[in-house]
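pinning this so it doesn't scroll away 📌
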Amino acid sequence: MKAALMYGPGDIRVEEIERPACPEGGFILKVSAIGLCGSDIRNLTTDSRKGKYPHIYGHEIVGVVDEVSDTCTEYKLNDRLYIYPVDHCMKCEACRTGHSEMCENGGDYTNRQGGFADYVPVTRTQVERDSIYRIPEGVDMIRASLGEPLSSVYACQENINVTFGDTVVIIGAGPIGCFHAKLAKMRGAKKVIMVEINDKRLEMTKQFGVDHTINSMKVDAVEEVRRLTGGKGADKVISANPSTQAQAQAIFMAKKTGLVVFFGGVAKGALTELDTNYIHYNGLWIYGHYGANSMQVQKAFELAIDDAFEADKFVTHVLPLSKINEGIELTRTGEAIKVVLIPNEE
């Protein structure tokens, strides 16, 4: 099969390798489409595996069952499936308290073979847990691939209760920021303000219901948010980017008793300086968001394949797997909102 192998930071080569063996109790999925995620790009362009190469990444996987173990009875050939990357044990304290996104025994998808390949093995453990969802006939596979990146956004907005009448600031107009804008509007937000440093990305966000755009390289973003909110600040501020500076500024964009979300992970070891006096005297809530619990994963997938979500607007580039490096560059420059790769190309 063909696969995109990472040999080191930024060194990704599409090569012919041996197709994986069918795992006992599991199956082999023929990958139909796979999204290119910001975390994938971070892993592919840094020494994410500390020299343990080559490796195949990719976790936004949808496809068709191509081979089934004799001991796997739940799935059959040609089943259309979405594979959520983290299989939750549903037995640890985190899972039993409704926080399976913090599962103590979750599957380690960054170390097993990923989906930037023609075929990917799905293990017995994944089959027995909660990570596999059937894709209805007639649903486009590219649309279905948005279920995974949408899951964390869906979970975040459900957890912080974005609701009717809210003013929401989103810092970062990448794919995740665009998902946040669309979902906030669907949940009834009155005003969505997008903060970003790329004018082209800002312009693209307007199709997702963004009411106001701010280029923070050209104006003081905090002052502009204050102006747009009558001096009060926003109900909710979501920092959806890898910048410590954005996190530090986010607290000043929130109203008194407002809520600030640190959604985007920053570089390991990077520390954010926060004015805790400001947080204290303004009664701010600070929430660090990561992942989605099992039910939120399911609901997000159902939304992704629903026409109301308008998935086609998010996917700006569909490329063969062989052009993965081009997809990385399109995403990094802001040319693309969401890149989806198609393995098994002729």
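📌 and the second one:
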Amino acid sequence: MDPFLSAALVLAAGLAYCAYRQRRSLKAHRSVIAKRDAEIGRLKSQLTAVERENEDSRALYSTNLDVVFDLLLLLDENLALATVNRPAARLFAGPNPIGKRLSDVTDSSELLNLVQVALLEEESVEEQFVIMGSNYRARAQVINYDKGRRYVGVALQDITDLVNLNRARRDLVANISHELRTPITRIRLIIEGLFLEADKPKRKASIQSLKEIAMETDALLWLAQDLLDLSMIESGEAILRLVKTPLRTVVDEAMERLESQAAMKELTIVSHVPQKYDVLCDADQLKRVFGNLIHNAIKWSPKGEAITITAAEQAEEITVSVFDNGPGVPEDLRRRVFERFYQADLSRSGDEGAGLGLAICKHIIEAHGGRIWAEGNSQGNGGHFLFTLLKADASFQHDVSMTESNPPREAVSEPLPLN
């Protein structure tokens, strides 16, 4: 055989074997690659599941933080914000405070000091302070993680309403104490004067003294009735029975009850309410409104003046006005005079009243589906209170619970104070 041919055959056989080995190796590599691809796919699926679980956990964690009423913060040892819930975000300047130092995003030195004290003492610290005009009760607690890392958790509770309520309670106690002490002291002095042995009272003086005693007794009864009415209104026990009622009749009866008080100051109460007006109301509660407004007018009016009551028809409502010639209500106080326990300038009012009458009027009128407000007297100085009532032909005739949380219908848009 030709040696060149033999060499060619040997070379061809070697190349064929090498190709065979390479094909087997390639097949093995493809199998390994397929297994690795399958493993990578499985790991990607696991990673996707873990990421989805983490997203769900973060969403749940964020939701839990955001739905609570308290303001929650988490800071690291450098006092940089790590987590802030949505209610707390309004405390900080800028859209995203995460990662910024506490001192860079808020001007509250009290909050910064609270966190620093908690880090220093490594225990729970509680304080109460004011941030941006609101009162907060705050608690800071150090949280130790692994590898020596420390965080500070801070919870702030807005207690502004509670502080205002406590202030109103203190004002109520102070006002009522004064209101009770004054008439009781006067009654005692008058009675002692009547029974002095050295100076036997004459009939005329005795009658005047008895009139003064009656007036002070009326003041005590009025205060007690105000407290009872407010208690029943806020507890939901006061029920309105709205029926067709002549407005003039209610006004006349309210005026009659207060004629003696008006006579003490030589005041005249004048009514210009037409006889034809019929309103949908609870007559007893509406008398209470007129009584409080007329009583206020008597208290504020100078001696010898007149108090005027008028009514006018407007669409489905009757607007009632009560005028007096007293000092009137300043424009900046016309929204606040209807708040519970609020009193205008005591130096102008003579330090009288517990601040309940107008608040009760507001509750009653709004429960009737009307509104009440104060204006300036266009005829000159003086008080001017107005309120609206539904006409008797309005389709609104049933018992109504007189509560704040369950009004009979939505209040008509009017610049009224909200308590």
